Fold:
Amino acid sequence: MNQEYEQLKKTVLACTKCRLSETRTQVVFGEGNPQGGILIIGEGPGRDEDLQGRPFVGRSGKLLDKILADCGFNRTNHVFIANIVKCRPPENRVPLPDEKAACIPFLMKQIELLDPKIILLLGATALNGLVDPKLKITKVRGQWMEWNNRLVMPVFHPSALLRNPNLKPETMEDFKKVVAKYREVIDPKHISENC
Ligand code: SF4
Structure:
């Protein structure tokens, strides 16, 4: 990645713009292939992520990796994973409005520099924080949207699937659309065994 991206990373890793800096262990900047074409955005780091400084490494992360693998995707080649806030909210609470407002500009800059062809929003916090605070994830999941001239799809957060496994079939239907779109806009030869 270029110098601007490395500078952004340096700035974020040292950030104290909001109160989450006081309780975090590590900033979670994001992980994956910056040029993979798919950007996945979650809510914020949890306990495991805070300790390791990596996104989606706990139970939700394992499920996310499994879904991605079913689609023929992985972190090394196809996706970059980030969050609405880059530091863990205490007790895994939802990030507060001023914390989101402080952190989202970093994400916006990341989006500009990564220039993903496809953005997936995992759950309500990502959907409401980035696109529209009034939209309901249960109503719009699995639908392609245009946002800032970018192709965006909200899907259920993996933690919702862990709480309610009945949501898994719908989610796999959503990811089938992602695979189809990936073939359309990024790699027509993409191989996926289960999607
Ligand atoms: S959550 Fe974002 S804005 Fe707040 S301290 Fe961490 S990096 Fe900075």
Q: What stands out?
A: Residues 12, 15-18, 20-21, 27, 85-87, 99, 102-103 surround iron/sulfur cluster (CB under 6 Å).
